[in-house]
Amino acid sequence: MAHFELNTPVPEAQIRALRLCDTISLSGSLFGIRDATQIHLFDRGRETRFDLAGHAVIHTAPNVRRVPRCPEYPAGYAPVCIGTTTSARMERFTRPLLGQYGVRMIIGKGGLLRDSLQAFAELGGVYLAIVGGTAALETTWIEAIEDVDLDDLNPESLWRFRVRDFGPLMVAMDSHGGSLYDQVRDDAAARREAALATMGVHT
Question: Which residues belong to any copy of the Fe-S hydro-lyase tartrate dehydratase beta-type catalytic domain (predicted)?
């Protein structure tokens, strides 16, 4: 297990060097995305003016407030609370995010499923887990909301945040077939079988 400090955009080789349970911190641009954003991008044919190649997206619909545009608030929004949401329901969008837009990292909570794990291996990507319930802390890692696209979907717009030392984030699914969620499930199943065996119960 190692710690990496990455600046976005990140080349595929750096992503493939990451292994399960490594930790990273991110600096540069980070894109906020959620269900409606991806439905409009992939089901309804809308396009974004943002270049997502080599970048990370975070599953979020931030709580923000409108403010006058100025150097501190270039998009006219100030962050109030920006936290992650559960990722599994957005499973079907992993492959097009990587394949069509070149996204390399997805940040969320709760993990993704088997097709995402396969897409990470084929296309070069990772899933980065963050502890749930830390939205207030995550918000302090965001220096500014730099820009926003598809803003008619607010708060599920496509947000571009400027971040510094965002993390630590744990590599919970890597590009080598490793999944922390699979490991936890398999370990729990093995312990269950062992516990039942001690009671003379065989399944």
Answer: 4-183
Q: How many helices (H) and strands (E) does the chain have?
A: 6, 9
How many CA atoms lie less than 13 Å away from 52 in the CB half-sphere? 25
Query: Could you tell me which residues are beta bridge partners of residue 142?
Result: 163
Q: Which two tokens stand for residue 4?
A: 């990496």
Question: Which of 101, 93, 98 is closest to 123 using CA atoms?
Answer: 98
Instruction: Work out the average pLDDT over 145-170.
Output: 96
Which pTM does this prediction carry? 0.93
Candidates 3.20.130.10, 3.40.50.150, 3.40.1550.10, 3.40.190.10; correct CATH number of 3-199?
3.20.130.10
What gap in Å lies between CA 65 and CA 25, rounded to an integer? 26
| Average pLDDT score over residue span 84-109 | 96
pLDDT bucket at 201, cuts 50 / 70 / 90: confident
What confidence category does residue 67 fall into, taking pLDDT thresholds of 50, 70 and 90? very high
Q: Strands 158-173, 23-33: parallel, antiparallel or unpaired by DSSP?
A: antiparallel
Separation in Å, CA 159 to CA 14, 146, 165, 196 = 24, 8, 18, 49
